[in-house]
Amino acid sequence: MNNQINQIEPVKYDDLIDLSTDIFLDVSGMYHRLNHNETELPLNCEPSKVTLHDIKNGCNPQNIQFSWNPSSCDHCGQIQYNLEIHIDNQTIYKLDDYEGDLISKTSYQLPKNLNPNTTYSWAVFPKSEKGVWNLDVDWQTFTTGEEYSNSAPVAFFYVSPDTGFPSTIFNCNATYSYDMDNDPLTFQWNWGDGSGYSEPSSSSFASHQYATQGKYIISLIVSDDKGASNTSSQPVTVRILETPNQPPSVWFSSNEPSGTISYDNPIFKYDASDTDGNIAGFYRTLGSKYKIDGNTPDESCFSLNKTYQASNLSDGSYTFYVRAKDNDGSLSPHCQ
């Protein structure tokens, strides 16, 4: 194939200026200066270095998945990441140059092909919301195999909610994990509370309830039937329950289709609010209210979107239902 990565000039970093000057080094080589009238940064404002997940030697150069544990910091806010790939200390790929921005997720599917039978090194640079980089990163090496090598699966999941209490059930959905070779997949979960990894299962859904408060890392291993695997992780926080959680409210945000319509792709728009937390997402269904009834609605109906568009509807009567879910796991009544 002809769309392999071309070698580019290495990135040259200037020396990091002392933090007392209120100047911080941007990973691209540009400096970011904080205005003196901005709030003074706390001392612990640098994100921690990330732990890289192993990439097996002999991997398919046309399908490389990078993943790492999230960085942490008490006063960093939203942490974003930049990925670099080197050959012999020469930079051949920078994520922000290709994507146009950094990413906040902890996994990345390389959109370019690497060369077969070649050794690469890679690292991930975390950046805080205030623009402070951690440049003291670890590098990891791997060697690609032939183009026909078995592809490792891509591991991805989301957890809802990501903050709760000991009474909260944390639901994980890994249905967006996939394998380039269409091999059957198995899923193993580690909840970060000492219980260890679960037995391999063909189900991409899992749930867990924590016994005590604290911060936990949920980890997932996705494996194909040829032994290749990949990992992904997400943090959750379990708080002390001080006051009963209040359910969110949901409503339609525009005049929704009603009565008799002459088209088969109506669009429904909705929004929600929560008096004691944040909205984690929505459960939506067209005509199948039972799917989102009760305290454990069907996770396949869950979405972060505030718009639902039906398509290719046959003649007949339909009712659209939506419920909001807050970050503590409470559900709103149905809106229809």
From TrEMBL:
<protein>
    <recommendedName>
        <fullName>PKD domain-containing protein</fullName>
    </recommendedName>
</protein>
<dbReference type="InterPro" id="IPR035986">
    <property type="entry name" value="PKD_dom_sf"/>
</dbReference>
<dbReference type="InterPro" id="IPR013783">
    <property type="entry name" value="Ig-like_fold"/>
</dbReference>
<dbReference type="InterPro" id="IPR036116">
    <property type="entry name" value="FN3_sf"/>
</dbReference>
<dbReference type="Pfam" id="PF18911">
    <property type="entry name" value="PKD_4"/>
</dbReference>
<dbReference type="InterPro" id="IPR000601">
    <property type="entry name" value="PKD_dom"/>
</dbReference>
<feature type="domain" description="Fibronectin type-III">
    <location>
        <begin position="46"/>
        <end position="147"/>
    </location>
</feature>
<dbReference type="InterPro" id="IPR022409">
    <property type="entry name" value="PKD/Chitinase_dom"/>
</dbReference>
<feature type="domain" description="PKD">
    <location>
        <begin position="173"/>
        <end position="245"/>
    </location>
</feature>
<dbReference type="InterPro" id="IPR003961">
    <property type="entry name" value="FN3_dom"/>
</dbReference>
